[in-house]
Specification:
This protein is of the alpha/beta class and 396 residues long. The protein has eleven helices and 26 strands. The longest helix is centred in the middle third of the chain and has 19 residues. The chain is globular.
């Protein structure tokens, strides 16, 4: 099977599943946003929890699992539904073995987490319940790793994204990835099907002014992930993902990598902050409209496409008004970027139709990234609409 990336329709939020093309079909989930309405059988939102479970394998105990889960930053629209749908705590305490598969919590074999984003977030706002639950679990896993000299098994593994201040991560070498380093380990094993370079969060600093700016700009984990198409094509595609990183962060990325722009190259980009104008400009879209100016550095950082690049906005349908996010002006900028690369732009809230959304699946091939064909997307949308209109049998 080829490597695939699935972008779930979760309104303004992120939820992306990478399934590697290796024999084990290794999985990496980046963020989660399962709204209450999506859990309600009578709700209008897509049941993305079912969509996710349908794509996961079961372990020897019949439990659904992801090999790794990355939380880009602890905003609610990136971790909503975590405690409801995922097991947090030692595997020995897993509570759902007697439940139906659809009700079993998902096991997270390994967590990828940054302590920096939690410290910076706590300065500016209170963490939601799911973010606190994730932070508690991350701390538990770090503690277990320290106690066991980093020899741990599935369910206790963690990789730390970025160094923290005051020596807090100095003793975590075996599970620590520093900014501008690359790694290819997932759930305790090296993989030949991916390599990820950590670009942010920018390392902690004693500069209070800089730290304040980083906190205000949602200092998310940014990864550029090289994905193999198959065993013979290790560089099938590059996927750049950066949570809610805003203009200051992207401008700084360009300052750091302008002379090695290949660091930022991508075949697939998940638009930062749900196609927000604030990732491309310091100016307010709602106040200045078309007079708002694009920041050249940020746009350059987000324009390092390879031929045929695809940009995906994980957000509501994008309308021509003063909304932000998503922002129509940001969409136009991203469309211009992919047009120059002979590529394509997709919005999860409009795929394949705004009134019949479903997960968007991008396939990694030896020629780059391959979106679903228009014929396939149209057929799926028609099937969804047809199914919704089919009358139920009497007595149901």
């Amino acid at each position: 099977m080829p490597t695939t990336l699935t972008f779930f329709p979760v309104d303004n939020g992120d939820m992306t599943l990478i399934k590697f093309g290796d024999a084990a079909a290794t999985t990496l989930l980046i963020d989660v946003n399962i709204r209450q309405d999506a859990d309600d059988p009578d709700g209008e939102a897509r049941d993305v929890a079912k969509d996710l479970r349908d794509r996961l394998k079961k372990d020897e105990n019949g439990r659904p699992f992801v090999d790794a889960f990355l939380l880009s930053h602890p905003d609610q629209d990136h971790c909503r539904g975590l405690a409801r749908h995922f097991h947090l705590g030692p595997l020995a305490d897993y509570p759902d073995d007697e439940k139906d598969y659809k009700d079993k919590k998902i096991v997270i074999r390994e967590i990828w987490s940054s302590p920096i984003v939690f410290r910076r977030a706590s300065k500016t706002h209170t963490l939601c319940d799911d973010a606190r639950a994730f932070n508690t679990e991350a701390r538990r896993r770090v503690k277990v790793n320290r106690e066991r000299n980093f020899v741990v098994g599935t369910g206790d593994r963690i990789q730390i994204m970025g160094e923290d201040i005051d020596g807090k991560t100095d003793d975590l070498g075996p599970i620590l990835c520093k900014v501008d380093e690359s790694f290819n380990r997932i759930n305790g094993s090296a993989s030949s099907f991916f390599s990820a370079r950590l670009l942010a969060p920018i390392d902690a600093t004693d500069n209070e002014e800089l730290e304040e700016c980083l906190a205000k700009n949602q200092s998310s984990v940014i990864l550029n992930v090289t994905l193999a198409a198959d065993a013979q094509t290790p560089d099938g595609a590059k996927f750049l993902t950066g949570g809610d990183a805003e203009v200051f962060i992207w401008n700084r990325q360009w300052e750091r990598h302008e002379h090695e722009s290949e660091v930022l190259e991508y075949d697939l980009l998940l638009t930062p902050h749900h196609c927000s104008w604030r990732s491309l400009s310091y100016d307010s879209w709602s106040k200045l409209g078309e007079k708002a100016q694009v920041d050249d550095g940020a746009r350059s950082a987000l324009s390092q496409t390879r031929n045929g690049a695809i940009i995906v906005a994980s957000c509501k349908p994008i309308t021509d008004d003063d909304s932000d996010p998503p922002c129509i002006r940001a969409k136009r900028e991203y469309q211009s970027i992919v047009d120059d690369a002979n590529g394509a732009f997709y919005c999860t809230g409009e795929y394949p139709k705004a009134d019949a959304v479903e997960p968007l699946v991008i396939t990694v091939t030896s020629q780059g990234v391959q979106p679903p064909s228009k014929r396939e997307a149209g057929a799926k949308a028609a099937a969804v609409v047809s199914s919704a209109r089919t009358p139920m049998p009497h007595g149901t």
